[in-house]
Amino acid sequence: MSKVILENKYIQQNTLTPEIELLICCSRTDIDEKKSLQIKTLLQAPINWPYLIEIAAYHKVIPLLFINLSKFKSPSIPSNIFNSLQKYYYLNTQHSLLMASKLVNILNIFAEHKIPVIPFKGPILATTAYGDISRRAFGDLDLLVHREDFIKTKQLLIDKGFEPYADSSEQEATYLKSLNIQDQEAYLRSHWELHLINRKEQVTLDVHQGVLSKKFSVPYNSKWIWEDTKLISFIGKQILSFSAENLIIILCSQGGKDCWLWLNRICDLAEVLRSHSDVNWEKIWQLAIKLKMTRMLLLGLSLAHNVLEAQLPEFILQKIDSNALVKNLTAEIILQLTCNLSNAAPNSQLKSLLFHLKLIEHPGDKIIYCYEQIIVPTIADKSFIRLPKYLSFLYYFVRPIRMIFFNHNSK
């Protein structure tokens, strides 16, 4: 399948299951003749169809699976399986179109108040990279605003029916809503994103003032993004969008943040590379050096190349091949992606922390990351136990205790 996979002894001894191999073959928009023949061959093998749907749902690539399987019209695909995939595909398309229209309405609100905004991921990525809004599943809508507009944006959206929420627990959501205006603003200034929900409209928004948490110690401001934007057409409307070069770095950074747990993250990057074949690679590399994100970049590109055959320039391939850490992480992630779900280890906080530390390039930044991650209290810690203000310093002890406790329980 790929050079990295072949080099991994574990995968040599335990070949890919037909279900996982078929899923990877179908997780792309462009099926060439070689890949088409491979899919036809796999369809002749015994396939555990319920498991295939389960792993496709976990990796969030059911639309691509359905679209590509429907091209073959194979009698080996059970009718009930095909009908289930088709039903999901139609429902996802309907949801995506609805979210796209709601996004336009939200962007109109920003335009009325003269707040610059860049929508990204969601329907934007589906149309620009995948070529069709139906090919990518998504839930939230993501927006980037200037840091100085972050608090103003929150208040504007609350006036329009949105409310803050925490995406991890109802307890955290309740705590967040209990904060007074002053404490909410202090919370916002220290966070890179804010989750908002409009229950009446059934829309959830992630409003960002940066593309990656400052815990990673990369440049927290997003000035480099705003200095290199472009206008694109979206549902008859001209909107701001990332340059292709910035988008590649952003997708690599966010995939790294999520430890590349899901195949759809690799699909996003591979489709951007496929649909933007004229990117300035030297510009990307120099920017990654400036942002101290070369490891994040190389790891994402390595995964896109080795899992989904994304084309890369020779000098990038050489940098990947000469970086032992990136090669080892690539093999680990591919192994994780190709394991049966029943054998997949839960991604604990400690495991994520150790993974992130490998991606951070400078020792000083590793220390800052550990301090921010292990010591600095979060909203989860403060909602876990409510302390009076004069005892708030105790949260710095609550944080490490909670991390140890929850990491132990997740094993």
- How many separate domains? 2
The residue-averaged pLDDT reads: 86
Order of helices and strands: HHHHHHHEHEHEHHEEHEEHHHHHHHHHH
Overall 3D shape: globular
- As a percent range, the share of helical residues equals 55-70%
What profile does the largest beta sheet have? 5 strands, mixed
Briefly say what this structure is.
The chain is of the alpha+beta class. The protein folds into two domains: 280 residues, no CATH class; 51 residues, no CATH class. The protein has 22 helices and seven strands.
Provide an overview of this structure.
This protein is α+β, with helices and mostly antiparallel strands and about 400 residues long. The protein folds into two domains: about 5-145 and about 210-345, no CATH class; about 360-410, no CATH class. About 60% of the residues lie in helices and about 10% in strands. Strands 1-2-5-4-3 form a five-stranded mixed beta sheet. A two-stranded antiparallel ribbon has the order 6-7. Helix 13 (about 245-255) runs antiparallel to helix 14. The relative contact order is 0.10.
